[in-house]
Amino acid sequence: GAVVSQHPSRVICKSGTSVKIECRSLDFQATTMFWYRQFPKQSLMLMATSNEGSKATYEQGVEKDKFLINHASLTLSTLTVTSAHPEDSSFYICSATLPGTANTGELFFGEGSRLTVL
Amino acid sequence: SQQGEEDPQALSIQEGENATMNCSYKTSINNLQWYRQNSGRGLVHLILIRSNEREKHSGRLRVTLDTSKKSSSLLITASRAADTASYFCATMKGAGGTSYGKLTFGQGTILTVHP
C-alpha cells in the first residue's frame, strides 16, 4: 500500500515550452501532496504544498507563476513548469502522506521526474 | 538556517562492516525520519523516531535520537552491497503553524558498500 506514481520519469523539452508532471496516489487518498526539487548530489528542497481543492502553498523564493500546481482530486496533483529555461533543469519529486498522518507520519515518494531543458 | 546536516558526506566501507551516519538539526522537532535514495530514484522511508524516543530498531537499522544535542544517528549493521545509496535525515517540526506536515531534509550521506 501507499504507492505514489509520478509521470513522466524523464522529459526533455525546448526552452520556452511548458512541461506538466503528474503525481498520483494509487491506493490511498492524499489530501496533501508535497513537491520537491533536487539538484545533482544535493538535498531535497521543498517547493510547495499542494492541498486538494485549494491553492498550493509555495515556499519562499519559489515562483508560483513559474511552477503551477493543481490538486484537482484526492489522488492527483500536477506540477507545470511554465516557459521552461535551462536553469529549471532538475529532478522533481512529489510525495504524499496517508490521511490523518500529515503532521506526524512518513512521506511516500514518487520515483521522480528528471527535467532537461535544452 | 540549514536543518538536518549530516556527516559524513560520503562513506565507503566493505561488505559486512557497520555504517554509521550522523545528523544534526537546529530547531525543536516533532519527529526525525531517515530516508534512502538510490541514484536517480525517489526516496524510500526507512524509519521514524519521535522526539520522546531515544532509540529505535528496524531489522539491520538502529536509529538514536538525542534531543539535548539535537542530533541523530543511523547505524546499518552487517552492510551489503545493496545498501549502497544516499541516506537523508529529515525533521518535522511540531504541530501548528506553517510548518504543518513539512519535512526538512539534510544534505545526505552517500554510502558505498564494496563487495
Pair with the most extensive interface?
Answer: A-B, 29 and 28 residues
Shape estimate of chain B: globular
Which whole number gives the mean pLDDT of chain B? 89
CA-atom Rg of chain A in angstroms: 13 Å
Shape of chain A: globular
Helix content of chain B: under 10%
Give the radius of gyration of chain B.
14 Å
SS-based class of chain B? mainly beta
Figure out the total of helices of chain B. Answer: 0
| Portion in helices of chain A | under 10%
Q: How would you describe what is shown here?
A:
The complex is a heterodimer of chains A (about 120) and B (about 120). Chain A is mainly β and about 120 residues long. Chain A has strands spanning about 5, 10-15, 20-25, 30-40, 45-50, 55-60, 65-75, 75-80, 90-95, 110, 115. In chain A, a hairpin with a 5-residue loop joins strand 4 and strand 5 (about 45-50). Chain A is globular. Chain A starts with a strand and ends with a strand. The mean pLDDT of chain A is about 90. Chain B is mainly beta and about 120 residues long. Chain B is about 0% helix and about 55% strand. Chain B is built from no helices and eleven strands. In chain B, strands 2, 4, 5, 9, 10 and 11 form a six-stranded mixed β-sheet that branches. In chain B, strands 1-3-8-7-6 form a five-stranded antiparallel β-sheet, with no helix packed on it. In chain B, a hairpin with a 4-residue loop joins strand 7 (about 60-65) and strand 8. In chain B, about 35% of the residues are buried. The model of chain B has no long low-confidence stretch (mean pLDDT about 90). Chains A and B meet through strand 4, strand 5, strand 9 and strand 10 of A and strand 4, strand 5, strand 9 and strand 10 of B.
